[in-house]
Amino acid sequence: MRYLITGFSGFVSNHFVEHISQVDPDYEIWGVDIREPSRQYVAQNKLLHFCKMSLLDRNKLLSLCKEIRPERVIHLASYSSVAYSWEHPVECFLNNTNIFLNLVETLRELAIACRILSVGSSEGYGQVSSGEIPLYENKCPNPINPYAVARVSQENISKVYSLGYGLPIICTRSFNHIGPDQPDAYVVSSFVRQAVEVSLGRRKVISCGKLEIVRDFIDVRDVVRAYHIILEKGNAGEVYNVCSGRGTLLEELLLMICRLTGINPAWIEEKSLIRPTENPIIVGDLSKLTKLGFVPLFILEDSLKDLLSRWQKELIKSSM
Q1: Which positions ≥6 away from 284 have C-beta within 8 Å?
Q2: In sequence order, what are the beta bridge partners of 248?
Q3: What predicted TM-score, i.e. pTM, was given to this entire model?
Q4: Do residues 115 and 170 make contact, with C-beta atoms less than 8 angstroms apart?
Q5: Dihedral angle sign, alpha carbons of residues 83, 88, 90, 96
Q6: Domains (ranges, CATH) in the chain?
Q7: Residues with Cβ < 8 Å from 283, sequence gap 6 or more?
Q8: pLDDT per position in the chain (320 positions), as tens?
Q9: How far apart are CA 60 and CA 302, in angstroms?
């Protein structure tokens, strides 16, 4: 199977590549990103190919897709930070919307018969009441930050190209990922890194934003398994939640991290980490995904332990 992965140098792609290499003996992967991948095995693996390019460059994208004619496309590329989208709303919206539009239009123009996974975000649900939890896919999106608006636009483009042009595009509304190698630009990895720094005597407290927030956390290794199942079995033109179905208060999460790290809970709220608007609770229903055969394998504590192990190794090594 020939795969094209956009956002190839990112956190989720690393795990997707590993998953595919284990379950598809006939895989071949082409990756596209504006950044070079950190994984060293790309040059050593004849089944992996990387092209450094922007999806905004239609000519290069057209040339690449014409050459490889992918059978499966996983669209992971985006500016995925909500905080960044508040700081750069125009850039975030134009980039995230146009790179996907260029991709699907290129595939349509070349008449390439491939299944396409359009990765979206649970941020698109917006502010909801506790009575609306868990969130089902038939809940109308109500985005309240620039990143979420772009993701919902991507989902709408998917519907147009699926229903109007017949492209087999399947969409996700993906909830908060956590797990090994997650960058500390994301809240859980930042908490774990800071907790390890406290344990090493490098800082006294953990800096955080609002902790009265409930999120649905799912391990990235479960995420990529879900993506593969959706890509193969999902119905074109439909949306699937990718979630654990369990909500966790951020304060409880931070207490768990402190316990696993062996430090006394100590944190301070910083205004710079508080967003202009915030979704107080986001918890998904995964029944539609489970009907495709998906069952989560990782619990929250296991994910945190693996993330903790990564940061301990990295920070202890940096002090040697």
Answers
A1: 122, 134, 135, 173, 175, 216, 241, 242, 243, 244, 245
A2: 215
A3: 0.95
A4: yes
A5: negative
A6: 2-177+217-242 (3.40.50.720), 180-215+247-281+298-318 (3.90.25.10)
A7: 133, 134, 135, 214, 215, 216, 243, 245, 246, 247
A8: 999 999 999 999 999 999 999 999 899 999 999 999 876 666 567 788 999 999 999 999 999 999 999 999 999 999 988 989 999 999 999 999 999 999 999 999 999 999 999 999 999 999 999 899 999 999 999 999 999 999 999 999 999 999 999 999 999 999 999 999 999 989 999 999 999 999 999 999 999 999 999 999 999 999 999 999 999 999 999 999 999 999 999 999 999 999 999 999 999 999 888 888 888 999 999 999 999 999 999 999 999 999 999 999 999 877 65
A9: 41
Give me the amino acid identity at 137.
E
Residue at token pair 């999460």: 253
> How many angstroms separate the CA atoms of 106 and 70, rounded?
12
Read off the tokens for 156.
């709408």
